[in-house]
From TrEMBL:
Coiled coil: none annotated. SUPFAM superfamilies: Amidase signature (AS) enzymes (SSF75304). One of its GO terms (molecular function) is catalytic activity. Residues 234-266 are annotated as: Disordered. This is Amidase. Residues 19-75, 86-203, 334-417 form the Amidase domain. Belongs to the amidase family. Signal peptide: none annotated. InterPro entries: Amidase, Amidase_dom, AS_sf. It comes from Streptomyces cyaneochromogenes. It comes from the Bacteria.
Length: 437
């Protein structure tokens, strides 16, 4: 069941939160010795919390719990620090998901209770990092939703390699403790509706959060976030406890008063880029992601257009690494960020979406990625602050998932969710072929 289906059933008392959580804990008990997706499992605490949810529903408070009884994983041992709005909405945290352990190369795998985290599709491959356990747990159906954080692609890459949906929000839109401003919270789920439910809960809790320290919404080199005013969140939570709709916002994140009648859908314009102008992704990955983009255009989910000037970003690696290296000269980061922001601003002035492969390669083995950066196509948007979502695009010749990345203007999470939701209806559900443990 999806998170939305679980919450609806618990609110209507068709299911009890205790039974839902007990079933999730049993799935984890059976599967985690193989997947190694969890660092800790909080069985007793989770069942106690589920009982409290059932009591509140029985007392007539179901409308206050849009995610009543939904079992979730939280990224790492400190994941509960950012999960407050989800718990307030009725979620039940069942455990902490795996992240890279001490000495583990950051591009590779997570380290769970029983060993290194494996990809549910192929156990000889990594699920990606650093939200490794969250992606594996969601893909294998242990929980419908798990939190992540994305400082260079750490939500989107595992989402792509595990065949699930992963959202990175606009930098500064939700609280983050990262001094550089590069990392932002995110979520992994099996369907877009559940991602929208996450965004509804989180954005409602953090209305008015600043989007940047300048008129263009960028994040400062010192990691500080200044105010440029509040932007209305998409995916608001209704008084009846339902999450939705994804919202009608223009591509600058402002309420779109010309969106048409309810149910109308105006396909947004989108630009395809196989490499962002600087990378060399594997041709097979590009072909699969491009095929998915074409399929979305043919289905009416979006309209592919050619940019006036082909997108050619500077490689963000030197800037990202400089920002993460104490004492490094910030000048290269400043130059690269300014150049890339200018080019992205020009692109989003003419188009509403940018489409790319999520990762430049298939999931690699547990020995590591070698010299390849799996972040090549994702960390540019941690640097620029744009929101991005990875949706499944298909399978590579080895049977591993490939992701398609959708990027929008700052503050336009609603647009990403709306397009991804339409895409899901036309080419999803994507995870039904995932190998079960």
């Amino acid at each position: 069941m999806s998170a939305e289906q679980i919450a609806s059933a618990v609110r209507s008392r068709t299911l009890s939160a205790v039974d839902v959580v007990a079933a999730a804990l049993e799935r984890i008990r059976r599967a985690d010795p193989v997947l190694c997706a969890f660092i800790e499992v909080w069985g007793e605490e989770a069942l106690e919390r589920a009982g409290e949810i059932d009591a509140r529903v029985g007392a007539g408070e179901g409308a206050l719990l849009p995610l009543a009884g939904v079992p979730i994983g939280v990224k790492g041992r400190h994941g509960l620090r950012t999960a407050g709005p989800l718990l307030a909405a009725g979620c039940v945290a069942v455990g902490a998901t795996s992240v890279p352990g001490p000495g583990t190369p950051w591009q590779t795998w997570g380290l769970g209770r029983y060993g290194r985290t494996v990809n549910p599709w192929r156990h000889d491959r990594t699920p990606g990092g650093s939200s490794a356990g969250s992606a594996a747990a969601v893909a294998a159906g242990l929980v419908p939703l798990a939190t992540g954080s994305d400082g260079a692609g750490s939500v989107r890459i595992p989402a792509a390699w595990c065949g699930v949906v992963g959202l990175k929000v606009t930098n500064g839109r939700l609280p983050s403790t990262d001094r550089t401003g590069l990392m932002t919270p995110g979520v992994l789920a099996r369907c877009v509706g559940d991602v929208a439910a996450y965004w509804g809960a989180m954005s409602a809790a953090h209305r008015g959060t600043a989007l940047g320290n300048g008129a263009d919404g960028t994040i400062g080199l010192d990691g500080t976030v200044g105010s440029v005013g509040s932007m209305g969140p998409g995916g608001s939570i209704g008084s009846d406890g339902d999450v939705g709709p994804y919202g009608t916002y223009d591509h600058h994140g402002r309420p779109d008063n010309d969106a048409g009648p309810p149910g109308a859908y105006d396909p947004p314009t989108a630009v395809w880029s196989p490499d962002l102008g600087f990378d060399s992704p594997d041709p097979a990955i590009v072909a699969i992601a491009h095929s998915a983009a074409v399929q979305l255009a043919e289905s009416g989910a979006l309209r592919l257009t050619r940019p006036v000037t082909p997108l050619h970003l500077d490689d963000p690696a030197p800037a990202w690494l400089a920002l993460r290296t104490p004492g490094a000269d910030p000048a290269p980061a400043r130059r690269i960020r300014a150049a890339n922001d200018s080019r992205l601003d020009a692109l989003f002035a003419d188009a509403e979406l940018l489409l790319t492969p999520t990762a430049p390669t298939s999931p690699h083995g547990h020995e590591g990625p070698g010299e390849r950066y799996s972040t090549a196509l994702t960390w540019a948007f941690n640097l620029s602050g744009h929101p991005a979502i990875s949706i499944p695009a298909g399978l590579d010749p080895d049977g591993c998932p490939v992701g398609l990345q959708l990027v929008a203007a700052r503050g336009a999470e609603s647009l990403l969710l709306r397009v991804a939701g339409v895409a899901e209806r036309h080419i999803g559900p994507w995870t039904t072929k995932c190998v079960r443990i």
